Amino acid sequence: MLYMRIAMKNLARIVGLVMLGTAVAGAQPTSAPPATVTTSTNAVGPKIQFATPVCDFGRVRSGEPIKYTFVFTNIGDRLLILNSVQPQCGCTTAGEWTKQVEPGNTGSIPIQVNTYGYNGPVIKQVTVTCNVTNQPTLFLQLKGTLYKPIDITPPMAVIGIPPDSESGSVLVTITNNTEEPLMLSSPESNNRLFSAQLATNTPGKGFELRISVAPPLPTGSVQAQISLRTGWTNPAVLTVPVVVSVQPAVMVIPSYVTLPAGPLGAALTNSVAIENRSTNALRLSDATVNVPGVEAQIREMRPGMSFTAMLAFPQGFQVPPGQQVELSVKSSNPKYPVLKVPVMQLPRPAMALPRVVPVMPVKASPQATVRPPPPLPPVPRLPVSH
Predict the structure, then answer these.
(1) Fewest Cβ atoms nearer than 10 Å: which of 45, 126, 201, 377?
(2) How confident is the model at residue 335 (pLDDT cuts 50, 70, 90)?
(3) Chain segment 253-306, per-residue pLDDT in tens
(4) Do residues 54 and 141 both lie within one domain?
(5) Domain range for residue 302?
């Protein structure tokens, strides 16, 4: 027995040493990792590199499209995928760009910018997203200066006519920004109220256009267009929009009186401001309303310049159906001999009818059994004493 126990211990010791040697023989030194680990650690993946991320297109005539193609290369060792190409605004568009690029190959992103209406320095940006781990978003840029071949200042001519004036004019400058000399024809107007005269400051380069309006002046604002032929093909004709605004000599604020729905439950006083914009003093008189029962009175707040018309409506007042009610005031201004202010009354809201809920008849179920009520218990009789 003793011999057998010693033999078993020795055998176990030998087996343990063998297993330990096997484990040590299978281990690798930390300084020399397996080839698979080395390959994974040094892997680059997809990498994108642009020939230039910025396009400086210099000085370009406004209206001419800017076209540029950005070229890029996949300098990595995996497939490069471009997910999206997004310009920053609607005037910039991207063409059909290269979606996937193998390692070592190149791709392109065509970009076009619509420059119509632009003038001066311009910067447009394009955002590119791809599958590069450490650089998933890139920005491309197009920059430069756009110039209009012809500058018109101001682009819209506005003529403001004061209340006491009978005419007005505005000066517009025309500048040629190209090397080609500019020749302009005599200006033409599409509205007979407007006239224009052209003067040359620098032959072929600079001009002045005087636009005028003469009586009879319109009421409010009127628009027109002045045209000049250039002799070029682009542009062949210059157009200058013009608007004249005649300021009224007398203003009524508000322009109409609004009353609540009638008949009025209580007497009501309303007011209207009348302002004199002219340099001449204004006199107002004879304020009346063309329906009985309404009183009108003029109060002078600033002599000759500012007035208040007071209107007193009695209880129960209601605008007669089909009649135009208005305040009339006589004025010393010859252009406005009578000032008229309409009086309008809100309609009375319609009364809502009560909602009728229909009652649905109750039908007995064909399967239901109607049982009669149980009989009442008999009433006990009390003994009758004799």
Answers:
(1) 377
(2) confident
(3) 998 999 999 899 999 999 999 999 888 899 999 999 999 999 999 999 999 999
(4) yes
(5) 250-345
| C-alpha–C-alpha distance, residues 224 and 179, integer Å | 31
The answer on pLDDT for 204 being more than 90 is: yes
Clarify whether residues 53 and 142 are in a common domain. yes
Is residue 366 domain-resident? no
More confident residue, 172 or 335: 172
Residue 190 within a domain: yes
Domain limit, last residue, from 124, 147, 170: 147
Average pLDDT of 360-381?
54
Looking at the fold, whether 159 and 69 belong to one and the same domain comes out as: no
> How many residues in total does the chain contain?
386
Burial 16-25 (b: 16+ CB within 10 A, else e): eeeeeeeeee
CATH number of the domain residue 176 falls in: 2.60.40.10
Count up the domains in the chain and report the number: 3
Which residues on adjacent β-strands are paired with residue 80? 101
